[in-house]
Amino acid sequence: MLTSCSEHQKVPRNPFTINRNVTCEDLTLEGYQWMPGVDVIIIGKRFGDTLDYYQMEYYAGLAYFDYRHLNNLNVVKVSSQNEEKEFVPLKETPDICHESYPILKNMVIEIDKFDTLKILDLIDKEKYSLEEKAKTYDIYQADVINKITMDTFNISVYEQEERYYFSSSISFY
User: Fold this and answer.
1) Mean pLDDT: which of 63-67, 109-113, 135-139 is highest?
2) Which among 20, 54, 69, 110 is most buried, taking Cβ atoms within 10 Å?
3) Whole-model pTM?
4) CB-CB neighbours of 20 under 10 Å
5) How far apart are CA 153 and CA 169, in angstroms?
């Protein structure tokens, strides 16, 4: 998938909708920002109690970010298979969109403990089918399948540090 100067794509904010034509540039135009991570590049945006983020991938042989040797939060090390290492000040926002594309959409919504019991009732059964998965450490896990597009979203409801969350994720491929 190549990024191009095509028409701006809207970024869906529904946990069960994906626009596979969205680019890194589309995300940044809508206010999504680089979120430092350990081993992947993530562009995200917070909307109240909801965090919507996309994992980015780079074309083979191009720059990737290396966080392992950071000792100053104001800089990020950029590495490449073909170039020497250099440091880029975070204040100058690294060009995370150069030769990159989204590969995963994830939406996490903080919910009340009571909502963990009823959140699945909010899923429109006319538009989506629900296939429960074996439980692990999560309170609930399932696949939500869009009956029209057949896109499959992996969902879970889980507790973390005495807070409760609903998560929906889908791969672009």
Assistant:
1) 109-113
2) 54
3) 0.74
4) 13
5) 5
